[in-house]
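quick one before i forget lol
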Amino acid sequence: MQIQVVKSKIHRVKVTGADLNYIGSITIDETLMEASNLIEGEKVYIVNINNGERFETYVIKGAKNSGEITLNGPAARRVQKDDIIIIMSYAIMDFEEAKTFKPWMIFPNENDNSLT
């Protein structure tokens, strides 16, 4: 049997931009992507702490150490600059493997999205 489990989580980051006139996605600082084990093009789920919106999109790599978290395209209508969001991805794995799997979870500084 296979199940779906949390693979990666960026907990409580501040949205730095919302660009409606862009092909849909979320741009994430490369440093945050590496720390949370996300790759470009990966499907992610977004939870907006400010308004309760939940939606999915895919990742675009942002500039390293920029702190960038920008929602693009239609997703830009679900957030505002300075909203706090949670970004998660999931993996499908064997039930027994899932029992010992440890996800990559990071907790950036909400003020500047840095890891320090």
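fyi The first helix runs from residue 30 to 36.
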